[in-house]
Amino acid sequence: MLKPLSRDQGANVTTWSVRPGKESKLRPRIYKGIPDSWRSAAWELLMSRYSNLGVREMGLLGAEYRDALDKPSTYDIQIDLDVPRTISGHIMFRTRYGAGYVLPPLDHRYLFGRDIFYSQRSLFHVLHCFSLRCQDCGYVQGMGPIAATFLNYFEPERVYASLVQLHDAYSMHTVFSPGFPGLLEAIYVQERITEQMMPDVYAALKRHMITTTSYATKWYITLFANSVPFQTQLRLWDAFLLEGYDVFIAAAVAIVWAYRGKL
After folding, report:
1. Which of 48, 159, 209, 258 has the smallest number of CB atoms closer than 10 Å to its CB?
2. What is the pLDDT tens value at each position of the chain, 263 positions in all?
3. Helix/strand/coil for 170
4. Chain region(s) in the chain for CATH 1.10.8.270
5. Domain 179-258 class?
6. 246-258 and 181-197 are packed helices; what angle lies between their axes, rounded to 10 degrees?
7. Other CB atoms within 10 Å distance of the CB of residue 244
8. DSSP assignments along 54-93, one per residue
9. Arch. (CATH architecture) of 59-169
């Protein structure tokens, strides 16, 4: 369904577009599930559409990332503490600040012109640079699992650009800002939907003084990273990058709905 839209000097694909005649099938096929071998290309397409960033803007973000690497951040100590415990069970992040691992050329991601490598070092660099991006948000712990997920599909520069797109276009600024206004709004909406659709469950949780923040905060802060099976998380992200943050409210309500009998 996708075709190359632009290439860099090495003829590697930098942006993608949808083939003529396939546009109407894009949304239902994304919900059906993006093949993992095409997820990096599809995510790039969805984020560029949602944020309206072109090749020039992405190049500027790459330069911004490289420039920020040598600048100090007041959050570096906290990032250093959090990085080793961010998806530390993943083989690519297991060694503390190791050199990472370069996927062999036969891997599908090489077909997109990238040697993808992951490591705690790359994760630290991305979080360090992103902490300098917004004075209000700075760095919060939930950014780590999000960046680590992106590192499974993009090189560090592109991960930084993806975090910027999430921050600016996908309303993550309100989620990470002091006081977490976006998080509180999402929880409020979830509670109202639960009260309307599942009044018995809502009443039971309230009777036992179980607040939505006690179990759903991590879901919304990390975009369900480390909260559901990884393949489920990827499917949620497919829809999120297409539709926006409200997808996670629907997912949270769906989980409560699935366990409504036990609750």
Report:
1. 209
2. 999 888 888 888 888 899 989 999 999 999 999 999 999 999 999 999 999 998 889 999 999 999 999 999 999 999 999 998 776 555 555 555 554 444 444 343 433 334 444 588 899 999 999 999 999 999 999 999 999 999 999 999 999 999 999 999 999 999 999 999 999 999 999 999 999 999 999 999 999 999 999 999 999 999 999 899 999 999 999 999 999 999 999 999 999 999 999 99
3. coil
4. 59-169
5. mainly alpha
6. 40
7. 13
8. -HHHHHHHHHHHHHHTTS--TTHHHHHHHGGGSSTTSGGG
9. Orthogonal Bundle (1.10)
Look up residue 240 and give its two tokens.
């999120």
* Integer CA distances (angstroms), 125 to 8, 83, 93, 128, 172, in order: 24, 10, 14, 5, 20
Q: Contact at 8 Å (CB) between 14 and 112?
A: no
CB distance 238 to 176 below 8 Å:
no
Tell me the one-letter amino acid at 213. T
State residue 6 phi and psi, 5-degree precision.
Answer: -150, 155
In this structure, what is the dihedral angle of CA atoms 89, 90, 96, 99, given to the nearest 10 degrees? 170
